[in-house]
Amino acid sequence: MSTQALTHSPVWKELQAHHGELAGLHLRELFAADSRRGTSLTVEACGLYLDYSKNRVTGRTLELLLALAAERGLGGRIEAMFRGEKINTTEDRAVLHTALRAPRGEKIMVEGEDVVPAVHEVLDKMGAFADRVRSGAWRGQTGRKIRNVINVGIGGSDLGPVMAYEALKFFSDRALHCQFVSNVDSDDFAEAVCGLDPAETLFVISSKTFTTLETMTNAQTARDWVLRGLGGDESCVAKHFVAVSTNAEKVREFGIDPANMFGFWDWVGGRYSMDSAIGLSTMVAIGPDNFRALLAGFHEMDEHFRTAPLGENLPVLMGLLAVWYGDFFEAQTAAVLPYEQYLKRFPAYLQQLTMESNGKSVTLDGRHVDYNTGAIYWGEPGTNGQHSFYQLIHQGTHLIPCDFIGFAKTLNPIGRHHDILLANMFAQAEALAFGKTAEQVEAEGTRAELVPHRVFEGNRPSNTILAEVIDPQTLGKLVALYEHSVFTQGVIWDINSFDQWGVELGKVLAQRIIPELESQDAPDLQHDSSTNALIARYRRMNS
Ligand code: G6Q
Question: What is the number of the ligand 1 atom nearest to the C-alpha of 357?
Answer without folding.
Answer: 7
